[in-house]
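$ fold --in a.seq
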Amino acid sequence: MPLSCPQRLHTVRCRSRARQTSRLSEPPPGPAAPSMVQACGGRSGAQPTAWSLGAAMTQPPPAKAPAKKHVRLQERRGSSVALVLDVRSLGAVEPICSVSTPREVTLHFLRTAGRPLTRWALQHQPPSPQQLEEEFLIPPNFVNPEDLDIPGHASKDRYKTILPNPQSRVRLGRAQSREDGDYINANYIRGYDGQEKVYIATQGPMPNTVSDFWEMVWQEGASLIVMLTQLRESKEKCVHYWPTEEDTYGPFRIRVQEERELPEYSVRRLSIQHQEQCRSVRHILFSAWPDHQTPESAGPLLRLVAEVEDSLETAAGAGPVVVHCSAGIGRTGCFIATRIGCQQLRARGEVDILGIVCQLRLDRGGMIQTAEQYQFLHHTLALYAAQLPGEPGP
């Protein structure tokens, strides 16, 4: 329908004012401004109203579009929320993984390692010397001197690097009145099947520790001492801590009651008196074993083990067997491991030599000092397995 003259005039004025407003407030390049038809309030040809004209003339220019924000990596993939954690709100959170210390790794290995060998495998398929040398790379579990917080202990240690492991060390009581504490370089050692305090492994007594040694024997009710060193081997390895006939060591009176010499070792029966009490102790000296080495053959060591077991059957007390060489770890460890291995072979028909050595080193660091001693231990137990009755199966 054609517009009347007043309507056309009104429309022209509206367009003129809109162009003037547009030139005065032209926005920077951006979204297109609304069309005149839209500004005037409707479809093309629609009758404008006063409200639509006023709105068109006073409408502010479109706002400038904000600059695009750089999006961080955490905010991508359709999320507008930053992946930021407030650690204060987490509380106590368990770590996903933990890093073990060298000490923890050592203890875990010593507690879990093992390689059982049947009688047949020990005799007919023994590990090669190279395999045993590699297997002998067992953590020694030596004590850090800084971890042994005992004033004055160094004067009672034969070797400054061979120290008793704190958790199993023997502590002396009060049989003697002294000011130097309860220290002696000795450890309780577990025996077959993990039985507690079957042995005490200790160093060869020194001039200033002889009375401490006898106090330990008395305190623990020991009825047997096994000595695996000579008094001198190029230098002093142990002092002569027992009498030729009779002598006093601190508050203890020691007498030799009986003595017999055998080709490989000597046996003495001693009496030890303290105040009004008197006890009997057997002392076995096995001297055919050089330091850091092995005996010439396994037979004498097996006969020593048999002598010890016979002595224990007739012993009056049930205390630990006191075993020492010079440092109390090499030959001492070999003897204890041999006896435990013999017990395993008799009871189970197999032996876990690696597991035995690991158990010993948990109780006293460095037990069995050399790969040669470790190989000799296998050889000795193979010989013992061959002597057992019955034919072992593969």
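$ fold --in b.seq
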Amino acid sequence: MKKLLLPALIIAMGAGAAVAGNMAKFNETAYRFDESQGLCIETEQMCGEEETNPVCTWSADNSVELQRFISPTECGKVLHEILP
């Protein structure tokens, strides 16, 4: 019994760590582009890259899609909601 339990426990721990690592890798702070200022502005929302999820929108204005930060004057790829 001990011969099976230890390898199974090690495999389960490795799989759990891999899933946790992938989730952290895809979650990031989202930004919105303010056209009047020409700036990429940080929001207090977290979004991800999973393209099958709905597009992440700004909580203050649902018509604004949130994006990845590239530079102070440029936002990049549209991000997606993080679903449980």
